[in-house]
Design brief:
transport; 4-stranded antiparallel beta sheet; Glycosyltransferase; about 65% helix; 2 domains; mainly alpha; sulfite transmembrane transporter activity; globular
Length: about 450
């Protein structure tokens, strides 16, 4: 769309002047098409007594959209889905039912890789919104890109989990403090995403049911992931009172996310039945419903397990003939089993959907790894709690499948990043940019030499 420079009303142009609409750009958007005309003489734009050089503007814009600037400017929140997929892979390999020392070391290597990626992605995000502050406002108002804000706290949660699994046994209490501090940050960010983004969908956008995708779940699932992570962190806290605070906060997060996700799943099922499967570009999003069901089941089991130990120590819900922690543990297992069964329904829908057609690679492919990964985590947790050979074997098979899938998606992501195919930011289409203007002593309506 043409870039227009709005200014004061123009007098009738002198002879030799012609109208020009300015340079076009895919990353700019001008909401006003009725602005006053722009006048140009010898590549000089005269607008209300001001003169600009479009050639300089074009050169600046071209320079900005090349090299590292292009990467920074196009670095969308969806890249944190890489952390989600990488993190859940390291967790699954660490907790594999049939494990070995070599798998432990592989999980640690992937964990370190995930930490490095998260730091790099975080710095790129800070650079993006520092160098181009207008992009932040455009991004959080974008109907699709804002949904991926939830990938940031979920990616961080996978790192917190591995800190508990790997660093706490090695480093002791300092690692516990680190994990607990990061979890509180993760909880606040998750809650902000869960509350703001759905409200933005209601308030800022005109949403049609046929345009809905399962990506609506992303900001909501972030609180469910934070709740499950809280259960893992609470298990290693040496202070029972701190563990109790964490467990209660995690139950609240679980209650914030799981019922909300169920509402969205009902809407999404209606969208699928009335308007068919989503377009091929977002076909992999049909796996996203596995996220709240799998992680919700794992989280409620883990919280019940910790409550069974913490409640008696803190004399929470004073017991009479029945231990309150035991009740929460049993109810948690029952709810998790129901959610696991419901997840199998969505697993069938997802596999049947993607097996019927080919679809191009994009960052949405990371939607394969994390939902399948948290479903697998719920499966292996059920195998430990029952115990059950079926869940152990099934969890091992799905863990290996997720790892192989992660390798494929990681390779395609590296290939696309090197070729430049993935450095695309849809939110920039709504960005309004104004070229720099250099004021000169030019009389309105008079062409200077």
């Amino acid at each position: 769309m043409a870039m227009e420079y709005a200014g004061a009303p123009h007098p009738t142009p002198a002879a030799g002047l012609r109208e020009d609409s300015g340079p076009e750009s895919d990353n700019t958007f001008s909401p006003e098409s009725s602005s006053p005309s722009t006048l140009q003489v010898n590549n000089t734009i005269i607008n209300g007594g001001e003169k600009t050089q479009p050639s300089s503007w074009d050169a600046t814009k071209s320079k900005r959209e090349q090299g590292w600037r292009k990467i920074v400017r196009s670095f969308t929140p969806s890249w944190f889905s890489v952390n989600m997929g990488t993190g859940i892979t390291s967790i699954l390999l660490h907790n594999l039912p049939y494990n070995g020392d070599w798998l432990y070391y592989i999980s640690v290597i992937i964990f370190v890789l995930n930490v490095v990626l998260f730091i790099v992605f975080f710095l790129l995000s800070v650079a993006r919104y520092s160098l181009y502050p207008k992009i932040w406002g455009v991004m959080i108002r974008h109907p699709a890109q804002s949904l991926f804000l939830g990938t940031f706290p979920m990616g961080l949660a996978t790192i917190i989990n591995m800190i508990v699994f790997v660093c706490v046994p090695a480093w002791g209490y300092p690692a516990v403090q680190l994990a607990w501090g990061l979890w509180w940050i993760d909880m606040v960010v998750s809650l902000a995403c869960c509350l703001y983004v759905p409200f933005a969908i209601m308030y800022l956008h005109e949403s049609a049911l046929e345009k809905m995708t399962a990506a609506w779940l992303l900001p909501i699932v972030s609180t469910i992931v934070a709740a499950a992570t809280g259960g893992i962190v609470a298990e290693v806290l040496p202070n029972p009172q701190h563990a109790l605070w964490t467990v209660i906060a995690s139950y609240i997060l679980w209650g914030t996310g799981v019922p909300f996700a169920m509402v969205v799943l009902v809407m999404y099922f209606q969208r699928l039945t009335l308007h068919h499967l989503p377009p091929v570009e977002v076909a992999v999003s049909v796996f996203l419903p596995l996220g709240p069901l799998g992680q919700g089941g794992f989280g409620i089991m883990q919280l019940g397990k910790v409550a069974m130990a913490v409640f008696p120590q803190t004399q929470t819900l004073q017991e009479s003939s029945t231990r309150s922690g035991d009740i929460l543990y049993v109810v948690g297992w029952m709810v998790a089993t129901i959610m696991w069964g419901f997840a199998m329904v969505w697993m069938f829908f997802a596999v049947a959907s993607v097996s019927r057609r080919r679809f191009p690679f994009n960052m949405g492919w990371w939607g394969f790894t994390f939902p399948l990964g948290v479903f697998t985590a719920s499966t292996t947790q059920m195998g430990r709690e029952l115990p059950s050979r079926f869940f152990d074997v099934f969890g091992t098979i799905t863990s290996v499948s997720v790892t192989l899938l992660w390798l494929v998606v990681a390779y395609k992501t590296i290939e696309g990043a090197v070729k430049g195919n993935l450095w695309v930011a849809p939110d920039l289409a709504n960005l309004v940019e104004t070229p720099r203007k250099k004021k000169v002593d030019v009389e309105v309506g008079v062409v200077g030499n």
